[in-house]
Design goal:
disordered N terminus; seven-stranded mixed beta sheet; alpha/beta; single chain; four-stranded parallel beta sheet; disordered C terminus
């Protein structure tokens, strides 16, 4: 996440002193049916807290019930006739991402937008009126340190530039498959905002839309937050509520993504004098434990399966290096997913690991968490802890095989896109608010 952080690491090679879970067997995960535009999510077949997962995330029940297939969510058409019917089809693809400040001057207002999001700082309903004042306070306090981080990587986030390049690459990949589409970029917390992208979609008279969040794994705080924005916009607009739409909720399990990650790891291993002796160190963005255990966020389980799938692909190529997973960017007094990246790096050094390859597994674009936190902070810590040879796998960016797979995902999702409709006022609501005794928590790290 741009300018925020957290991640969980689950090693197959045990690292003493950290919390680990055995993940020697692949879990079966899918993105199941859900009941609202905001809350559609991907879930493990291990049934996280049973019905609590659905109850804690679902919010509203549209007339058009959503259904899922391999991580794709669509909406079944209601009897209301769409005003789009009979119009020449124009396909749109909306890429969703976090956004980031492009200059140091942008840092404080970007942080305000971030912390004003109730999916980032989760306050009980009784204290929801404090959301914006608290966001203002935190953004002002955090801005100086965050500016130092952005200054260290050139004065701003490269995320918009990279996302624009990915959008163009996906458009070109679809054109090679004889599909002409308009590709839009919608950022959650900075320009171009999601709302701006939706306005352009309306102006262009798009008749069918595929929504592709640029997060491989689903989390309430990333994909979930962006979809909440879309739900709010679509509910209030007659044109959009009739627009056939399909949302690709998660895609970490796609073979094209897995192969692309394995390709990058295999290539970087060759830069070491003894590739077989290198510890593969997956570092993922973390979230507070309560997101998983109380709110039913499937992020941790999806991350674990993602690592399993990548390692299985590497093993099929004859690469059987030891590996571990850890979560980076924790902050604040609450507990985050463990083990923590910084602690595991120290432990590995103490255990005599000399060669380490860092893999930023939850990031597909270079940004502050890779360029500053991993490349600077964690590299320095690793070398200081006794690790002698450090390497880092680049983010996928516009890797051709990766872009091709995303284009394929769009093509697969398109046929099932159907209109969603505005839910009636009588729809059953399930609160997304944390319990009244919930501790203050959220993404506070902004370096």
């Amino acid at each position: 996440m741009e300018a925020v952080s957290s991640s969980a690491v689950l090693p197959l090679a045990k690292v003493s002193g950290s919390e680990h879970r055995n993940f020697n067997q692949k879990s079966s995960m899918s993105c199941p049916e859900t009941r609202s535009f905001t809350s559609t999510h991907c879930r493990s077949s291990k049934h996280l807290k049973g019905s609590q997962l659905l109850n804690s995330i679902n919010k509203r029940n549209p007339v058009g019930q959503p259904f899922s297939s391999a991580g794709v969510y669509t909406y079944v058409e209601s009897d209301t006739e769409s005003p789009i019917r009979g119009v020449e089809e124009k396909v749109g693809v909306l890429l969703l991402n976090l956004g980031g400040p492009e200059t140091l001057h942008d840092v404080q207002p970007f942080l305000f937008n971030l912390f004003a999001d109730p999916d980032i700082i989760r306050l009980p309903r009784l204290f929801r009126f404090l959301q914006r004042p608290l966001a203002q306070l935190i953004s002002v306090l955090r801005a100086p340190k965050s500016k130092e981080g952005y200054a260290a990587i050139g004065g701003g986030s490269p995320l918009r530039k990279i996302t624009d390049e990915q959008a163009q690459a996906i458009k070109e990949a679809l054109e090679t498959k004889n599909m002409n589409v308009n590709v839009y970029v919608g950022m959650r917390y900075w320009y171009p905002f999601t709302e701006e992208a939706i306005e352009q979609i309306k102006k262009d008279k798009i008749t069918r839309l595929v929504v592709l969040p640029l997060y491989p794994q689903f989390s309430i705080s990333t994909t979930g937050s962006s979809i909440r924005v879309l739900e709010n916009i679509f509910r209030e607009d007659a044109y959009l509520s009739s627009l056939p739409v399909s949302i690709i909720q998660c895609w970490y399990q796609r073979q094209g993504y897995i192969n692309s990650m394995a390709d990058l790891i295999e290539k970087e291993l060759q830069s070491f004098s003894e590739p077989g002796e290198v510890m593969i160190f997956f570092s993922a963005h973390g979230v507070p434990v309560s997101y998983v255990e109380d709110a039913g966020d499937p992020y941790r389980d999806q991350m674990e399966e993602c690592i399993y799938l990548i390692m299985q692909e590497l093993k099929s190529r004859g690469i059987s290096n030891k590996h571990t997973l850890a979560y980076q960017s924790r902050v604040g007094p609450v507990q985050w997913l463990k083990p923590y990246t910084d602690e595991v790096l120290v432990e590995l050094g103490q255990k005599g690991v000399k060669n380490l390859l860092a893999v930023p597994v939850s990031f597909i674009s270079e940004h502050i968490e890779t360029l500053e936190e991993i490349d600077m902070e964690y590299k320095h810590l690793a070398l200081e802890s006794g690790i002698e040879n450090w390497g880092r796998v680049p983010a996928l960016g516009c890797t051709p095989s990766f872009i091709t797979d995303l284009a394929d995902a769009v093509i697969e999702a398109l046929p099932t896109a159907m209109a969603m409709t505005t839910p009636p006022s009588s729809s059953k609501e399930v609160s997304l608010d944390p319990p009244s005794n919930t501790k203050f928590e959220g993404y506070i790290r902004t370096t």
